[in-house]
Amino acid sequence: MDFEKIASTYGTPCFVYDFDNISKKYDELKMAFKARKSLVCYAVKANSNLSLLQHLGNTGAGADCVSVGEIRRAICAGIKPYKIIFSGVGKKDSEIEFALLQDILLVNIESSQELICVEQVAKKLGKKARISVRINPNIDPKTHSYISTGLHENKFGVDIDEAKRLYIYVKSSKYLEPIGVHMHIGSQLTQLQPIRDAVAIVANLARNLKALDIDIKFFDVGGGLAIKYTDEKLINMTDYSQMILDELHGLDVTIVAEPGRYIVGQSGYLLTKVLYEKTNESKRFVIVDAAMNDFIRPALYQEAHKINLYGKTTQGSLCSIVGPVCESGDFFAKNIKFPATKSGDLVIINDTGAYGYTMSSNYNTRGKAVQVAVQGGADRCISRAETFDDMIKLEIEFIKGVI
Ligand code: LLP
Prior knowledge:
There is one protein chain. The protein is an alpha/beta fold. It has 2 domains: 3-13 and 266-392, Lyase, Ornithine Decarboxylase, Chain A, domain 1 (Beta Barrel), CATH 2.40.37.10; 19-263, Alanine racemase (TIM Barrel, Alpha-Beta Barrel), CATH 3.20.20.10. Helices cover 30% and strands 24% of the residues. The protein is built from 12 helices and 17 strands. The chain has helices spanning 3-10, 19-32, 50-59, 68-76, 93-102, 112-125, 160-171, 192-211, 237-247, 261-264, 297-301, 388-392, and strands spanning 14-18, 38-43, 62-65, 84-86, 106-109, 129-134, 176-182, 218-220, 254-257, 268-280, 283-288, 307-309, 317-322, 331-338, 346-350, 370-375, 378-383. The strands form 2 sheets. Strands 1, 10, 11, 12, 13, 14, 15, 16 and 17 form a 9-stranded mixed sheet that branches. α6 (112-125) links the parallel β5 and β6 (129-134). α5 (93-102) packs across α6. The radius of gyration is 23 Å and the shape is globular. The two termini are 43 Å apart. The model has no long low-confidence stretch (mean pLDDT 96). Ligand LLP is lined by residues 43, 46, 64, 87, 147, 184, 187-188, 222-225, 258-262, 297, 301, 354-355.
């Protein structure tokens, strides 16, 4: 990819996404499950750009959404409601109502109170709500604590006994239809065994439910597959799909998967330009024009992303790559070897396609970056850089005085 040309055409900071690689990752996952009916519901939270959603929708993907905003994005991008699922521990009545009115595939229930709420909304609308229950299997997924979701100490899902009670309640409700089971034990998962243990628990539940005449049609294995940021050892895709097929033996279900990072993570690059270099005592800093407001993963999860000076392979001396935001937490890398730079040099932060732009903010009143897609060798803008006027539009009408 000609990053130099893209940076000079669109400016920096700039997120670039390789759309061809995104469809390749989707196809890889879909192929892995070819022995069964499957539905890949891309986790919109990883990257919710409308053009990207449309691209994935065209390849056949559904959407895993956690807010009414994400459902609206998916629909707006042309993803069919029957391929949309709605998860999340705190759905509001209005969000549930919207989802039911759109006739999405299912609402994923995360507590008994939420189940009653969905039932009431369905009753009000005169509808039958299709649901699944998210099971918290109390399994340690062995990942960063912020993105670990499958232990009872985490807020997600319900324990297995509660799940059974909920399904039995649902069976007798006029307004609820149980069609799925769901699990998602965490993100950036590098070990297969915890996923296997969780799938086994949920598969056992699904078998018990079938014995109770509760017809489970969809088995959602969640998302969470890791990508290689530095030297992680990854789960082999064939091992992953084979494990799921093995654990689901005897169950006639459609497999649902909800990958986010796996599909888009490695297809994204954040382009940023060097502003200055400086040395405090012996400590070398390279200051670039992107910051933690554009890409917060290194600051929030201490995640190391590979960074390179475009076109240079030499290692150079130790330095930290930092942004202009007024916090010492505003860094992209600490103490890495990096070549000498000059103002205007292009720096590439790799693997920023997932949880990059979607977690960006206006901190320090910095506008959000431009986003660019590259497909079939051609580049195009898929959202422009945010302007000062964009940033103040919700506030400006409330001030008195000089404008
Ligand atoms: N399904 C559910 C219910 C989820 O909560 C998530 C992610 C996914 C699917 C997709 O997980 P993935 O395949 O992308 O790992 N901001 C963090 C990641 C937070 C993940 C939240 N849930 C990061 O930058 O690492």
